[in-house]
Structures are given as C-alpha cells and as structure tokens.
Design brief:
Layout lengths: L2 H15 L6 H17 L4 H21 L4 H16 L15 E6 L6 H14 L4 E6 L6 H12 L3 E2 L10 H15 L3 E6 L7 H14 L3 E7 L4 H13 L4 E5 L8 H10 L3 E5 L7 E3 L2 H9 L1
Parallel strand pairs: 1-4, 1-5, 2-3, 2-4, 5-6, 6-7
Antiparallel strand pairs: 7-8
Helix pairs in contact: 1-2, 1-4, 2-3, 3-4, 4-11, 5-6, 7-8, 9-10
The protein binds guanosine-5'-diphosphate.
Subcellular location: Cytoplasm
EC number: 3.6.5.4
Organism: Tessaracoccus lubricantis
C-alpha cells in the first residue's frame, strides 16, 4: 500500500538527515520534492497545496526552536499534517440512543458494498452488537444471494425480499427491515443498497428514497480506493444527491498510490470511518488517521 509515496518520502527525509541546520532554501527544496511525491500519488491538487503550505510554515517556525535535529522536526511536522488531512481523529459510529441504529451503505457497483456489509456486521458482532443485514440491492440479479452468503459467513441474519417483506421494491424491504429489527431486538440495521457502474439520476433517487424511508443514523459512502481521484468525485456526487455522513475506503490493500485516501476526507469534509483491506471478512477496521500516517512514513 502506498509504496511509491513511502519510498519517495523516505528518500526526501534521508537527504535531510545529513544536514545539521536547515536554511530556507533547504526547506523549499524539500517542499518541492514532497509536492511532487504527493502529486504522483494522485493526491488532489488543492490538498497538496494546503499541505505543503502548512508544512513549510511550521518548518520555518520550528527551525527556530532547534529542539530536535532538523530532519526529525520535518518528519514530525509532515506526520502531524498527514494526520490532519486524513481527518485528525478516528470517527466512531454514532449509535442511536434508542435502537436500532440504522446504517445505510451507498456507492457504485463493485465498490465493495456487499463485502463491506458483511465485514461491518461481523465487526459489530465482535463488539457485542446484534446487527441485522438488509438486502435492499434488488438491481443486480444475485445481489440478495451474495448478501445471504456474506451474512452466513459473518453469522448475521439477513432480511431479504420475500412475500410480506416487499418483493422487488427496495424501499419496502428497507422500511420493513426496521420494523423487523424493532420486533426482534436487533440493535443495528445495515442496509445494503444498489449501485450502478456510474453515477446516474435513477441511482441517486433510489438511494435518496431509501434514505427517506429509513432515516439512517449513518449514511456511509463506500468507495474503491483504487479508482483514485474518481473516488473523490463520486463521493461529492453522492453527498450532493443523497447526503453522506462518512466514507468507507475499500481495497486499500490494492491501492498502490493513496490519492483517494489522502484527498477524500479533506475535499469532502467528511471523515473516513472504516477501511477495508482485503476480501476476507476480517480484513477490516476503523480508520485511524494517525496509524495511516505512520504507515505512509514507514
Ligand atoms: P458491491 O457491488 O459494491 O456490492 O461490491 P462487492 O462487495 O460485490 O465487491 C466487488 C469485488 O471486490 C468482489 O470481488 C470483492 O471480493 C472485492 N472486494 C471487496 N472489498 C475488497 C477489499 O477490501 N480488498 C480487495 N482486494 N477486494 C475487495
């Protein structure tokens, strides 16, 4: 993950280590290299500019203190600013005071929503919750079956369309699932919704209608990190069309560059809440900006 960026930053810092004291010209040169490294990693240009300005301002100020050696000072500042653009602090799920907490998943087809639904359910179960998975993706022929398989692997019940649950109508299924959760005392309802290959009006409308029907406590936008800046653009479209509370990045294990991860929280102004790192249900955790920054800095 983020191999090139890691290597580039490591070599920038290596060059600094030999210097006893940093001049403004040294700092400028370092900033240029960091800027190129971030742009090559496909980080949003606005985010890059903001990041470089913040690091440079602090580096110039920090030079005066001379508390640590210069390269350590720069690494510390870069680390802190990386944490800031990644969202600062981890953002946990806001559980409803009165259960069930409703979590709606939205995103494009293939983003990893169904897999993520299973991962989230498994994780919630390990945190002593009683989640219910809801198959409200009735677009893809085998989406319901796929969620049932995922639910079985996670050991979590799946509420699916059938007579009485609303056959063929995702809004009815979603609505019915809330009543079912209340009756059967499930404390978290995870609603998997349909995706399309691209953003379209019909997809947005359906997601918005499901949202209106179930009033989720958290609407999570699930996105494949490997699509880079397209992830950021799609997130913006969903936020405008449906309204999202947080982002889940999937396929971070295959994301060699890191552009989406390093841009999306800042551009969208919404936190990355979870990260998905593989096809197995256990490859999942809350997203911790500080841990991610440490990984990038190696
Ligand atoms: P959906 O269309 O949004 O429901 O997406 P799926 O959950 O069906 O996932 C699409 C594909 O991506 C499947 O082949 C998943 O196994 C795969 N996938 C999902 N999450 C991850 C992940 O974090 N890492 C990797 N490598 N593959 C993933």
């Amino acid at each position: 993950m983020f191999d090139t960026l890691q290597d580039r930053l490591a070599s920038v810092f290596k060059g600094l280590r030999s210097k006893g004291r940093l001049t403004e010209a040294d700092i400028d040169a370092t900033m240029r290299e960091i800027r190129i490294a971030l742009l090559e990693a496909d980080v949003n240009l606005g985010v890059v500019k903001e990041f470089v300005t913040a690091v440079k301002t602090r580096a110039l100020e920090a030079e005066l203190s001379k508390a640590l050696n210069p390269s350590q000072q720069v690494i510390k500042i870069v680390n802190e600013e990386l944490v800031a653009i990644l969202g600062g602090e981890a953002r946990p799920i806001r559980f409803a005071k009165k259960p069930p907490t409703v979590i709606m998943l939205a995103g494009l087809q293939g983003a990893g929503k169904t897999t993520l639904a299973g991962k989230l359910a498994r994780w919630l179960k390990s945190e002593k919750h009683t989640p219910l998975l809801v198959a409200a993706d009735l677009q893809r022929p085998n989406a319901v079956q796929q969620l049932q398989i995922v639910g079985e692997r996670a050991g979590v019940h799946v509420y699916a369309p059938e007579p009485g649950n609303g056959v063929g109508d995702p809004i009815e299924v979603a609505r019915g699932s809330i009543a079912h959760a209340e009756a059967k005392l499930y404390d978290v309802v995870i609603v998997d919704t349909a995706g399309r290959l691209g953003v379209d009006a019909e997809l947005m409308q359906q997601a918005a209608d499901i949202k209106a029907a179930v009033t989720p406590h958290e609407t999570l936008f699930v996105v494949d990190a490997m699509i880079g800046q397209d992830a950021v653009n799609t997130a913006k479209a969903f936020d405008e069309g449906v309204g999202v509370d947080g982002v889940v990045l999937t396929k971070l294990d295959g994301d060699a560059r890191g552009g989406a991860a390093l841009s999306i929280a800042r551009v969208l102004g919404k936190p990355i809440m979870f990260a998905s790192n593989g096809e197995a249900l256990a490859d999942f955790d809350m997203f911790h900006p500080d841990r991610m920054a440490s990984r990038i800095l190696g």
